[in-house]
Each structure stands twice: as C-alpha cells, then as structure tokens.
Amino acid sequence: MLFQVAGGCGLGTLKAADEAGIWGIGVDVDQYSVAGHVLTSAIKRVDNGVYQAIQQVKAGKFSGGADLVFNLKNNGVGVGKTNPAVPKAFITLMNSYRAKIIAGTLKIPTAIK
Questions:
Q1: How far apart are CA 24 and CA 95, in angstroms?
Q2: What is the pLDDT of residue 63?
Q3: Which of these, 96, 98, 103, 109, has the minimum number of CB atoms within 10 Å of its CB?
C-alpha cells in the first residue's frame, strides 16, 4: 500500500501503485479517479477553511496572525470516494471512529513523543 502525501506532485505514486497492482491512497483532494488501485483519499477541505475564514471576516471576528485549525468537527478534513473493494464493515468502523473523534470520546495524539 502506498499513501502518497504530496498532493498533485504525488500522482505518479498512485500510478506506480496501479502498475504494481497494489493499493494507493490519495491526498489533499479526491484522487480516486487518478488510477485504478486507489482505495480513497485523505482530503483537506480548503474550500471550507476559506469559507469559514470569510464568514469570520464578515462577522468582524477574524483576528489574523493566528493559526486556524480545521478538523473533522468543523469539516476541515474528510475522506474521498471509497473503492468498492473496501469491505463495508471497514467503512462502518471508520465512520464510528469519525463520530467518536468529533464527539471527543476518541482522542487523537497531536504530537509525537
């Protein structure tokens, strides 16, 4: 399995995975249709981030000079189209983890020790 982490620069990785007959995972945008062996993509929802920042500006609440954090709870990240080869039980499990992360009952480490 290859999880490419270079956005558009990593498209060759997905094509190489396809040629090798192994699975690839896209990143940044939905890269499902880039090659035949793409399981899914880890998506950065930049569109939602920009929209939320604009809404803050309109409301007079955008302070600038600070990081904005985008996550599952505020729809800043997501998962792209999922290959039908992925068992439905895995998708159900993924969705249950997603709900627990959003609810705060499953804590994801934010730093490497």
A1: 20
A2: 85
A3: 109
